[in-house]
Specification:
The complex is a heterodimer of chains A (425) and B (250). Helix content of chain A is 55%, strand content 10%. By secondary structure, chain A is an alpha/beta fold. Chain A is globular and about 55 Å long. The chains are: A alpha/beta (425), B alpha/beta (250).
Amino acid sequence: MKGQHEKMWQGLGLDLGAHDALLEVLKKGYQDVYLAQKNRPEGMGYLDFVMSEVHGLRIKELIDEKAAGRKVIGSFCVFVPEEIVRAADATLVGLCTGADFVTEEVERFLPRNTCSLIKSAFGFKLGKACPYIEASDMIVGENTCDGKKKSYETLKDLVSGVYVMDIPQMKSQEGRALLKAEYFRFKEAVEKLADITIDADRLRKGIEIVNNKRKALHRLSSLRKANPVSVSGLDALLVNQVQFYDEPVRFTDSVNKICDELEVRTGKGEGVFPESTPRILLSGCPMAVPNWKLPWIIETAGAVIVGEESCVGERGVRNLTDSSGSTVDELMEAILDRYFKVDCAIFTPNPERLDHIVEMYDAYQADGVIHYSLQFCQPYLTESIPVEKALEARDIPTLRIETDYSLEDLGQLKTRVEAFVELIG
Amino acid sequence: MRFAGIDIGSRTIKLVLLNDKRMVLNKRVDSGVDPMGRAKGILDGVAYDRIMATGYGRHLFELSFDSPVVTEIKAYAIGAAAIFPGVRTILDIGGQDSKAIAVNGEGRVTKFEMNDRCAAGTGKFLEIMANTLGYNLDEFGLDALRAAKDIRISNMCTVFAESEVTSLLAKGEDRQDIALGLHRSVVRRVAGMLKRVSVEEPIVFAGGVARNVSIRRLLEEILEKTIMVPENPQIVGAYGAALLARKKLS
């Protein structure tokens, strides 16, 4: 994608040398992790193409949209309601993270013991290698964990257009009232940015677009319940990751096409791995492109991932938004209902998450749970201990992994994952 | 038939050869800078029908020798259960990692934990500290038992602990007292790991560090349990791998 997009990247202020180096690493990683897999569904070809143009054609589309007066809003979290963004004809994109980048530079702004996800996001900004953040007219920083909340204060000095959204920490009436106020405030901010008044029709349309995307992802998840499973966990994760970058309607169609193919495969009893392959449910922190380290270790250790209890996975898309309301207030209430159910570990207490892990373990016929936390991610790390105890009390084998984006613990992780696979196999 | 088990560790490579169930050979060499060359050397002239590899270098071996592999965790569980039937807890401290393994009565792993990326609480830590104090490894453990005084070493990081040791020496502390403090610090760490996994008896202690009597004695003290050490604690993994090579055939 290099030559043809250089001008565009220059226009966005990217550091072409650093960006080229990044794309090279990404391409190599994609080959080693994704293209090296066997029996991939043909429909994944679409995802291969999207990935090869994730900083190219997709950015061009966004630039074209901007030229036509539409806005781009960047986010780091599934609490930012895409329905509202779509209702204003704007596009919501996930901002770059998922790989270590110019870490020394980042540590001039953030403490060392900040999680990889936050450091990486800063790295992409400071290293001028994320076209999404450069193309964004608004960047929503949401007050979820302390690491993000405080780092947005610093981010404000580095980029323009940072909009901070407060997020409650308890599922109480007061918490709900806070989220409601914040979603209305966000709606106004989006309306002002896009110079569009969001009426009920617009909001309903936004809800429908996003719901359709979620329904396609539900269909994909559901197909993974079969044994043998017709798609690898790595590929399913990629689909979940790409939803944050791709044009939603086209993405939805493509996922549905993949599902059509998987249905045929499942009907014939075809799988990507043999029927006896141990099945893993992955639970914990979100994994952004190109953070494929742990899933890759798991699937090359002779197991298959059948579900992700994660924001980039089922936690992020579990519920649909009711689109039956006839007024803006009713539809906003439906949006609020939907997002207030998200069982992120920033909430205290957060019993729904454990229920969902157990539910998914059963539904996907998993043989064990691997709990993944990023080092220094207090909410998920703290929750991982009681979650592990509760799962083991139910005789669900659980492996707790704490890691980051670096590859220095690859050998240790491989041994632990392989031993876990031996244990459940 | 003859079955071989090879354990390619970070510090040493161990080989066990079984004639059916009976151990007919065991060998150990340093891993050096070219572990695959050393592995080839240790296998030189050894005839076997099947082999199974374990240890940190198992995947390299798998590539060069087209051998099946098993993790150290399972290999130690199988090996320890064959030597001590009914074992429930295994502690393995090797060159660069330590593992606590809970097994059911049949030697099947039910839970395990491993140290993360750092050398704290491993053989390498002890080796560096022994060096700093001017001991060879055997004297180091024995001399710690002669300590008259308890000195608490607070740094678990190998590099920081080394400077702590240097400053204690500069203060005129006796080296056997410092040696005891260092052993205690390793034991505190592995005891914590064991408690998270299992301390159910019988407990078997294996791996290179199990040769250190001081670690074993201090562990028994802190856990208030009896700890068993096999006659040749370093080959338990290779033995387990050889048994698995045999089992795979049957």
